[in-house]
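tl;dr need the bound structure. longer version: we got a ligand (aspartic acid) that a collaborator sent over and nobodys looked at where it sits. i said id run it. heres the input, straight from their email, havent touched it
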Amino acid sequence: MSADHPIAIVIHGGAGELEKCFTEEEYSAVLVQAACAGYTLLLEGSSSIDAVVAAVVVLEDSPLFNAGKGAVLNSAGGIELDAAVMEGSQLRAGAIGAITNIKNPILAARTVMEDSPHVLLVGRGAEQFAAAQQCQIVSPDYFHTEHRREQLKRFLAAKQSPADSHQHGTVGAVALDKNGNLAAATSTGGTTGKLPGRMGDTALIGSGTYADNRTCAVSCTGHGEMFIRHAVAHRLAMPSAHSAASLSERAGEIIRELKLVGGSGGLIAVGPRGELVMEFNTPTMPRAAIGADGNLIVSFGR
Ligand code: ASP
């Protein structure tokens, strides 16, 4: 009989710059609540997928982050949410894109993985499927906050491109459970002023989210188009017989290389022995982690 694996969880609240209208204390309180929600489940022996979903639900329910309530607005002033989950044991994955009325997109992504024969559902079909699986439906108004309306106004007035937005705020979690199973979850409203119908990296398995028990679980945040083009999550999680570099070193290299080609953002990852990785090339990436030693870390900048 094999011994229990170490348990670990890492969460992020998006790479970029902190929103000035919230304090570090406010961010910290939600990050701690989310990390503890996931970690408590791991301690009780629940699976890593249960843990990452529980952590992301807390972050989606908070208006501080760009996921669920408080998500950013697209160029038409609407909200379209993307989310994905993946399990490292069987490479099972589920994702939803451009949904407007499911309270917790991460729960919808999980039900796509567990209850449908598909990996990615988008738009109306995704909403109908999630509703049929008892995901809670809300009016699109539920997600709107004054702060995001102001942000869109400034964005449109400055004639910016969504790629210029430095406020990200996507959320994600990765975890390792006592059976050695890894899982990843990511949820986002995308980028401020994006075109309706735009899909970023978050819901694309291998771009913003990936998990493979042999290597790591990873959740990304940042300029989604660049994460898609460079297949960032899968690049980190791809088994490599040739590299002697640690998971953390490889993650650092990927994020530095991304910056050289104009891609801002970051990622969190956890490896099969509980290695914790948090890399970013932006001023901050609010994050929290609880590793094998049981100590809670909460950080913003470097
Ligand atoms: N990666 C997300 C997207 O492009 C945005 C973010 O992480 O802030 O949709």
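gonna send this back to them w/ a short note. The CA atoms of residues 168 and 209 lie 16 Å apart.
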